[in-house]
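User: Sequence in, structure out. Go.
Assistant: Echoing your sequence, followed by the structure tokens.
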Amino acid sequence: MSFIRLRGVTKTYPPTAKGGSPVRAVDDVSLDIEAGSITGIIGYSGAGKSTVLRLVNALELPTRGSVEVDGRDITRLRERELRALRGDIGMIFQQFNLFESRTVAGNIAYPLEVAGRPRAEIRTRVEELLAFVGLAGKAQSFPEQLSGGQKQRVGIARALATEPRILLADEATSALDPETTQEVLTLLRRVNAELGITILVITHEMDVVRSIADRVVVMEDGRVIEDGPVFDILSSPQHAATRRFVSSIIEEVPAGGRLDALRTRHPGRIVTFTIRDGDAAQSEVFAAIAGAGVRFELIAGGINDIGGRTFGHLTLSLTGEPGAVDRAVAAARVHADLIEEDARG
């Protein structure tokens, strides 16, 4: 059974203005999230992804449908039971949400103090978490003295303080630069791998999904439009919105004006091959073309690492005698899919 399970979940809010229509933030969403996984939920602003997060931690209850966490339907729990459930769920945020008047140690200790833990236990736990997130020397610093990445590390440590089984990250890297983002994502992967915590990452950045997630859920207008393993979704997106996200990290096959520009700059026959993990390496494609006595130039595309697997498009300009070019294309097709060929021949 799935660790987190949504079935037919709809969340509707009252009209925001007199005479207006109700706002349906989530529309008939069903999801299964396995224990110990990292799932990315991606969508543009207003897609409903943050509402899904609030439904999982019971800050919101669905208008219709069921939300189960570890076999418990949270729509049927009493307030006391909901508080206990929320204690099993950690949260990290885009703007960190640290107490500026508390030290780093004080911020991490806060949820333990609220839970009534003994002082000695709190001190030991805070020291463990500071070491885990790489901030052992910052215990007495205040948030204003920290970089953005350090603040998010404090946020992660605080979220882990009560030893939750679920960690919800709401746009947790959106305020960070690319290098710091990767550092935080590496830490979250450690949280998952070493502590076994199930992580849900809300984001509008496909590169975050590629870097950390096992599975991706794509949302638009409150609905799930695609859901599956990250490699499958990135290598073969089916929906237009998903293709837009994917194009931000995987270069699309040249077409239209871009293809015309390539034709102007490169006189050879232009072809594009898709390289897919388990099928071939790009070196095999290159060797097959070279073996046919044809010169080639890589003019667009590239290979991407997706969870340790490779995928990408290679657009080449092939130059040589027409018959040799035909033989080169045929030889390369043994190793990779030919998905586009310049009609000029």
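User: And one key feature?
Assistant: The CA atoms of residues 190 and 196 lie 9 Å apart.
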